């Protein structure tokens, strides 16, 4: 009788263990699949970022890529306008907008520190007056609060140590805040102004108001000419 009771207990124990093994196996497979999915997603995220970065480099010069630092450096080496380039955060010029009867200081760099003081010059673009694209940015609530009144045919004047450079606006654009086509190379001397848009928007504005202007007149300082 005792032997039968022991056999019964052993059988019940095996049945319990057997019934637990199935859920444990399912849980293990599910956990492994979840980790594999996360790994796969992370891998593709990194891969996509690498592809995007390489596309900006490979398409430089088209309307789809950023101004590469090496191209700007080359332009600096061969352009006679500037004997030296400004340091980050340095005030190096003045932007005059006749339509608004306004003049504002221009600082090298477009980080918050520079934009808090005036107009910021995107450091990876050429300086005003040089061939290629010179990009200036400003806050819509301060220096560029009336920029929406400026449009095609209006003039933009930049004064630096190299001289006075007059540009004429030929294009007005409204783009998404992450649109990289604003900061691209140009075949001709170009000035691009950009600020957040809409102007009266409360919070982080989703768009950018962009003015693109071509150089129509240069009065250079002879001391900087070769």
Automatic annotation (TrEMBL):
GO terms for molecular function: hydrolase activity. The keyword Hydrolase applies. The keyword Disulfide bond does not apply. Keywords: Hydrolase, Plasmid. Pfam families: Sortase. Gene3D superfamilies: Sortase. The active site is at residues 139, 196. This is Class D sortase. It comes from Planococcus lenghuensis.
């Amino acid at each position: 009788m005792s032997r039968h009771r022991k056999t019964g207990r052993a059988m019940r124990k095996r049945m319990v263990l057997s019934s637990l093994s199935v859920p444990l196996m399912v849980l293990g497979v599910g956990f492994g699949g979840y980790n594999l999915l996360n790994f796969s997603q992370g891998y593709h995220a990194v891969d996509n970022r690498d592809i995007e970065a390489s596309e900006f480099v490979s398409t430089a010069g088209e309307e789809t890529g950023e101004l590469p630092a090496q191209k700007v450096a080359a332009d600096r080496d061969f352009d006679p306008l500037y004997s030296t380039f400004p340091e980050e955060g340095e005030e190096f010029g003045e932007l005059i907008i006749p339509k608004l009867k306004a003049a504002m200081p221009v600082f090298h760099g477009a980080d918050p520190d520079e934009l808090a003081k005036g107009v910021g010059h995107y450091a990876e673009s050429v300086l005003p007056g040089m061939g290629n694209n010179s990009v200036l940015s400003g806050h819509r609530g301060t220096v560029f609060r009336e920029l929406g009144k400026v449009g095609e045919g209006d003039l933009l004047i930049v004064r630096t140590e190299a001289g006075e450079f007059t540009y004429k606006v030929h294009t007005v654009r409204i783009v998404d805040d992450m649109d990289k086509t604003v900061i691209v190379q140009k075949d001709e001397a170009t000035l691009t102004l950009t600020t957040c848009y809409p102007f009266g928007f409360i919070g982080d504005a989703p768009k950018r108001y962009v003015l693109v202007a071509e150089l129509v007149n240069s009065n250079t300082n002879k001391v900087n000419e070769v």
